[in-house]
Amino acid sequence: MKDTVGAFVPDGMFRLDGASEGPLAGTTFAAKDIIDVAGRTTSCGNPDWLRTHGPAKATASVILRCLDAGASLVGKTVTEEFATGLTGENIHHGTPLNLNAPGRVSGGSSSGSAAAVTAGLVDFALGSDTGGSVRSPASFCGIYGIRPTHDRVATDGVMSLSRSLDVIGWFANDPELLSAVGAVLFHDHVVAPSPGRFFVAEDLMELLDERCRGALMEAIDSVAALLGEPEPLRVADDAPIAGLDAWALTARTHWGREAWAEHGAWMLSKRPKLGSGVAARFEARARVTAEEAEEALVRRDRISAYLDDLLADGNVIALPAAPGTAPPIGGSDADIDPFRAANEPIGALSGLGQLPEIVLPLAEVDGLPLGLGLAAARGNDEMLLDLALELHSAGVAPTLPIPK
């Protein structure tokens, strides 16, 4: 296999054959380079991390589960440094190409995994999601992706950014495989409930421009054929911690304190070379005080309890998976920062609530993909995966063709 889109890290293409039989037999997959493979050093997107760390002693459980199910691992994919970023551009390893949006980014921080699936280099790929790092790439690339319920998929052997928000997610070009991977990776079995009420997060939709919002509303109309009439809801305005700005601040503060606790000492001692956007994020994280973090934790718990009540009984909420179509490659921090700011509250809903969220590639604007997010209560991952299968069976298919 040749890496035609720059999806894999340097020296990151290798093969570990999966079992001869199993639910994923005959498939191939790739793993974001924050996930350990025994005998290989995980770079986390940064050469200084690679230089100062030794080979992993054990392979992460998520990889072992896929291998045991018959899938073969073919390499490690590019990530923005320390799983931090929205565009997927890495100053050390380059920018994976997005074949569904030429000249546009494939999305961060799981950019290589999404690009590899989009290009057909692998059947599925593992990524991670803290504030949207599976959801945005799936949307930008026009592929299926899922952020599972927090703690339903093992994270041993995975670099941590924010332990209470981090999850392992995955990408595929079809919902059947997306669901099959979930059945392998979930450490428990949950009987999917029947879907309940169908909400639309109007306040989050308003963060997108008019054309993107209109494209997603058309996709929502298609989903409504299965879920019933959508009910508009200003999801953050009705919360005990009200307003999207408050949600974004809560996520940024909580995430920032945890991320600095994980990596601050190493960064201060090693002074790694970082991309400007990543450096700015960590400089901000270093300034979060213990008092601010404690207040954010209280707000997070109140938001999470509110979302638990809102999504009880199989209720589903539709929201943007990303703040718009993929930005052009090579944009400056000034160009990207407003996009990042809009993404914070979009990513915060499922992150703060520790909710599952699936990305359906059902919209496009000017030939560029745009994903619709569907979030549900914790543990209702299978319900979302079943919905994707039902929609596909009903002829509600991806807007853009899969590259060959």
Could you list some keywords that capture this structure?
11 strands; 12 helices; eleven-stranded mixed beta sheet; 404 residues; 38% helix; alpha/beta; single chain
Please explain how this structure is put together.
With 404 residues, this protein is α/β, with parallel strands linked by helices. Strands 1-3-2-4-6-5-10-11-9-7-8 form an eleven-stranded mixed sheet, with helices on both faces. It has twelve helices and eleven strands.
The strand order across the widest sheet is: 1-3-2-4-6-5-10-11-9-7-8
- Element pattern in H and E: EEHHEHEHEEHEHHEHHHEHEEH
Query: Quaternary status of these chains?
Result: single chain
Percent strand: 15-25%
Radius of gyration: 19 Å
Number of helices: 12
**What proportion of the residues is helical, as a percent range?**
25-40%
Q: How far apart are the first and last residues' alpha carbons, in Å?
A: 14 Å
**Total beta strand runs:** 11
**Major sheet characteristics:** 11 strands, mixed
Any low-confidence stretches, pLDDT <50, length ≥5?
A: none
| Structure classification | alpha/beta
Shape: globular
Residue-averaged pLDDT: 96
What layout of secondary structure does this protein have?
Layout: E1 8-16, E2 28-32, H1 47-52, H2 61-68, E3 72-77, H3 111-118, E4 124-129, H4 135-141, E5 144-147, E6 167-172, H5 175-185, E7 198-201, H6 202-205, H7 210-227, E8 231-233, H8 244-270, H9 276-286, H10 290-310, E9 316-320, H11 333-353, E10 357-365, E11 368-376, H12 381-393
Parallel strand pairs: 2-3, 2-4, 7-8, 7-9
Antiparallel strand pairs: 1-3, 4-6, 5-6, 5-10, 9-11, 10-11
